[in-house]
Amino acid sequence: MSKESRQKDLLEAWKASESPCDHEHDANPGVRMGTRMPSPSRRGLLKTAAAVAGVGLLGSTAAMVEQARAATGDRKFLFFFAGGGWDATPLDPKYGPDGVAPIDGTDMDPMTQLGTAGNLSWCSGDDRPNVDRFFHRWGGHAAILRGVNVHSAGHEAGMKWAMTGTSASGVSDWPAILASNGSVDYPMPHLVFSGPAYPGRLGAAVVRGGGGVLLQLISGSINGRADRPAPVFATPQDQMMDAFVFDRAAKFAQVQKGLAAQGKADDLLSNIERGMELEGRRFEAGLDNQGNTMLDQSMMALEVMRLGLTRCAIIGVPGGWDTHGGNRNVGPQWNSFTNDLDKIMDHLASTPGSSAPWLIDEVTIVCMSELGRTPKFNGAMGRDHWPWSSYMALGSGIRGNQVIGASDDGLIAMNIDLATGQTSDTGTSFGTEHIGTALLKLGGVDPENWLPGVPAVDALIA
């Protein structure tokens, strides 16, 4: 029997074991937010053990389903990070009145010209037709951010500024903060497929993507793959140990006071619950079938968001963006990136949401890099590091069809009014910190609790 047939048979048996009250439909017909594990289940044994002990800390399957459903009311965030520092000019083109010849002070890639749609403009060319297609189709949902100050011309410092809005150590990044401050706990709060992660003190919110390893950790089967393989216990023994550990931790937590009651015991109980939730819904979420491409990972991230398992995810944008030795690959890389973005937006616009008609109304996409590139080519026709970059945001909560910020002819940022996004002599130097605080506001998180005194670029918010 094939793997697919076995999975299908198991899934059908799993569905058949459900009670009608365990899979209520939400406002969108055909979208089921919760399922129940086959009986007997690990979670069922834990539940029984807790009940025998008189402990109600582990919720029933129905409660977990309701919790997952409630989680979908939060706005979700999908970050794309182009590691290496991308060229700002594809989103901040510098052409003269004819739309072809570059203006003085900035070199543009040869054989390119100005592309426009609505209020947006970009670098168009025969090596990047998908960029034109993307903006013509989705420009109404997108905001281009120009002249973003990343406060550094170095990779490591730039990444820290891009993700946290500060150079201070120990500060959590935007996705970790958002993932930790949802309406409920998520089994996988912030799913990191690739790209930078600065969880700070919110490390418990970060889960590394990669399907197989994640499931092996949950099931315990990874013990058999260690350098010195540990025994992999049979399911009944494994269930008995889980029940025993949960029962002991629950009893311990009951009698503790102060920080101890909210510390290690509660964390252990929470982790066991998360593991049961993920193991029970692995087929529903497709956790066994993760691909490795950016599009594969994006679709996986969106599916677990739809199911209420994850609030944030970050995925690295493939390609060599550190273009000291030549800029020829930039066009094809943008062509590939926007082709994937186009498919992702199609998926968002055609997939029913959980708290809104479509996922496009629930998911915010942020496209960024840790630094920009110099306006002039170097001797190798490449570009070196530059502390101003261009970003893009689109989807839920974003005021689309607009450009926020600006740079002059030499690609140096100009001050802007954060409320309007337009240049202003009395305005603010537009930086990553202002974008991050806007994202926190979009996610229902008070920025004052994380970067006090840093205003948000409210022009970004619809």
Report on this model:
By secondary structure, the protein is α/β, with parallel strands linked by helices. It has a domain at 76-210 and 290-460: Alkaline Phosphatase, subunit A. The protein is 34% helix and 13% strand. The protein has helices at 3-16, 42-52, 61-71, 129-138, 155-164, 174-180, 212-219, 235-255, 264-280, 282-285, 294-306, 330-350, 432-442, and strands at residues 76-82, 112-117, 120-125, 142-149, 190-192, 206-208, 312-316, 363-369, 372-373, 385-386, 388-395, 402-404. The strands form three sheets. Strands 6-5-7-1-8-11-4-12 form an eight-stranded mixed β-sheet, sandwiched between helices. The protein has a two-stranded antiparallel sheet with strand order 2-3. Strand 2 (112-117) and strand 3 form a beta hairpin. Helix 8 runs antiparallel to helix 9 (264-280). The radius of gyration is 24 Å and the shape is elongated. The termini are far apart.
Number of strands: 12
The biggest sheet amounts to: 8 strands, mixed
State the order of secondary-structure elements, H for helix, E for strand.
HHHEEEHEHHEEHHHHHEHEEEEEH
- CATH class assignment of the domain at 76-210 and 290-460: Alpha Beta
Q: Unreliable runs, pLDDT <50, ≥5 residues?
A: 1-72
Q: Tally the helices.
A: 13
Using the alpha-carbon principal axes, give the shape: elongated
State the helicity in percent bands: 25-40%
Q: What would the CATH topology of the domain at 76-210 and 290-460 be?
A: Alkaline Phosphatase, subunit A
Compute the separation of the termini in Å: 52 Å
Largest sheet: spatial strand order: 6-5-7-1-8-11-4-12
Q: Mind telling me the C-alpha Rg? A: 24 Å
Please state the structural category: alpha/beta
CATH architect. name of the domain at 76-210 and 290-460: 3-Layer(aba) Sandwich
Rounded mean pLDDT is 82
Strand content is 5-15%
